[in-house]
Amino acid sequence: MPSEHDYWNPEPPSWSRLPAPDPRVTKGLHWAMVAVSGAALLLVILNFALNLNVRSIQGEVNQRQQFINQSVQLGRVDEALIRALAQVALKENNEQLHDLLTQNGVTINPTAAPNVPASAAPGVSSSPPAAAGPVSPGGSPATASPNAPGPAGR
User: Fold this and answer.
1) First and final CA of the chain: distance in angstroms?
2) Is 100 within 8 Å of 84 (Cβ atoms)?
3) Cα separation of 49 and 46, whole Å?
4) Quick one: which of 142, 79, 151, 86 has its CA closest to 113?
5) What is the rounded CA–CA span in Å between residue 118 and residue 128?
6) What pLDDT, in 10s, does the model give residues 19-68?
7) Are the C-beta atoms of residues 116 and 144 closer than 8 Å to each other?
8) For 12-143, where are the alpha helices, taking DSSP H only?
9) Measured between alpha carbons, how far is 1 from 84 in angstroms, rounded to an integer?
10) Which label site among 25, 91, 134, 145 has the fewest CB atoms less than 10 Å from its CB?
11) Residue ranges of the domains in the chain?
12) What pLDDT, in 10s, does the model give residues 99-120?
């Protein structure tokens, strides 16, 4: 059993008995470690700055993507609105509504499938399904297509 004296004053470990390093080497290692730690600090600051830049660019990209998504949704609404206006213009034989659609590049054709010009509904296919189109008073699908002949008498 170790004595109380040995317990409180243990013998130093074997690695502590190594000879003292050369002061010139210690000084060189000191400055090398200072340089390495300075470079690490510089890299941390650079990383922080780049992360800020990436976040701002990512915010811009997210705003543009949101605009694109909303444009597609609004394009669908525009197409439905044009179809509804074309249906009303045919059903009620509304000259003012027909002229308004014509001024905006939409020609009403009661016999073909609806065709909305790209400028009227951006991001929407110009050939929607025929069943979704307005129906003329005669029961055939009414359409709104550019450069198509209008109803008889126009």
Assistant:
1) 119
2) no
3) 5
4) 142
5) 12
6) 777 777 788 888 999 999 999 999 999 999 999 999 999 999 999 999 99
7) yes
8) 23-91, 95-103
9) 101
10) 25
11) 24-144
12) 899 898 888 887 654 555 545 4
| Tokens encoding 64 | 């543009």
Residue 15 DSSP SS3: helix
Nearest Cα to Cα of residue 87 among 149, 141, 129, 130: 141
Q: Is the pTM of this model over 0.70?
A: no
Least Cα distance to 120 among 82, 87, 85, 69 occurs for 82
Q: What is the widest separation between alpha-carbon atoms in the chain?
A: 122
d(C-alpha 64, C-alpha 68), whole Å: 6
Q: Per the structure block, which two tokens stand in for 126?
A: 């110009």
Q: Which two tokens stand for residue 38?
A: 């300075």
Residue type, 92: E
Higher pLDDT, 92 or 126: 92
